[in-house]
Design a protein that fits this description.
The protein has about 140 residues and is an all-alpha fold. The protein is built from 4 helices and no strands.
């Protein structure tokens, strides 16, 4: 009875054996295909075509954006540079203003001692010009 089982494999065993044979044949065919120089050349050309299509699609999108008059990447980059320059200039102006404030605060005590006389002079001038105008 053991001989009968070995002589006639079950349907599941037949399917398993056929699957393994098909897998082995597919693996061998794939290795032959990939191992050849033709596959390497084909793969290189496909990569070149993908790179060219990517560049073309990017250029096309740039043209579409430009024609729609929407700010594109180049415009945004240019505006970012201008904004950075303007911010730098503003920072320099603010530093100058702070330095001038510091100078004013240092010069203020000196002006307070002379300031009373300085304030009286414009008042005298204003009174003198009023009396000239009324005569």
């Amino acid at each position: 009875m053991a001989e009968d089982e070995n002589a006639h494999p079950s349907p599941a065993e037949q399917v398993s054996r056929l699957y393994e044979e098909a897998e082995a044949q597919a693996a061998k065919a794939s290795e032959e295909l990939v191992g050849g120089a033709g596959f390497t050349a084909l793969l290189g050309r496909v990569a070149e075509n993908v790179a060219a299509l990517t560049k073309l699609s990017g250029d096309t999108m740039d043209i579409v954006v430009r024609n729609l008059r929407i700010a594109g990447k180049r415009d945004v980059v240019g505006l970012a540079r201008q904004l950075a320059r303007t911010e730098d200039k503003l920072e320099r102006v603010l530093q100058e203003v702070e330095e001038l404030r510091d100078e004013l605060t240092r010069a203020k005590p000196e002006a307070d001692s002379d300031g009373r006389n300085a304030r009286a002079r414009p008042a005298r001038r204003a009174a003198a010009t009023r009396s000239k105008d009324s005569s």
